[in-house]
Amino acid sequence: MGNKLRIEKLQELIKQEMSKMLLTDLKDPRIGFVTVTDVEMTGDLREAKIYVSVMGGAEQVKSSLEGLNSALGFIRREIGQRIRLRFTPEISFALDTSLDYGDHIQKLLLQVEGDKNADNSKGGGNETSSRE
Fold it and tell me: Where are the alpha helices (DSSP H) in the chain?
């Protein structure tokens, strides 16, 4: 039980430190508007997967991930210095598509609502005339 709490705290700490690094330390022009959305660590704290969301098209996403992966050594060293652990975790980046998925669902819901309103405006006139 205590180990799970420790993992969650470390995940949040890595997320915060990675966000700070993106704002201040990483100067690679390939890295665009990147947001750290989540961090998952293994139970032995040896590996960390950092989920990032990238604003922009497919080309911007690709170049941002390339920039992050090229700075992997620097990022790992900085996290090791900022967070005192016996072993600095191996870091990997993964694209978080949950925001894109949520946006897609929102558009579908708005489309369904628009279709429903259009049907009601067409059907509503016919229903009232048939009742009279």
Answer: 2-24, 58-70, 72-82, 98-131
pTM, to two decimals = 0.75
Total number of domains in the chain? 2
Q: What is the residue range of 111's domain?
A: 97-132
CATH number for the domain that contains residue 17: 3.30.300.20
Extract the tokens encoding 25: 């330390």
Helix segments in 1-57, DSSP class H: 2-24
pLDDT digits (tens, 9 = 90+) for 50-98: 999 988 888 999 999 999 999 999 999 999 999 888 889 999 999 988 8
How far lies 65's CA from each of 7, 30, 35, 60, in Å? 25, 8, 12, 9
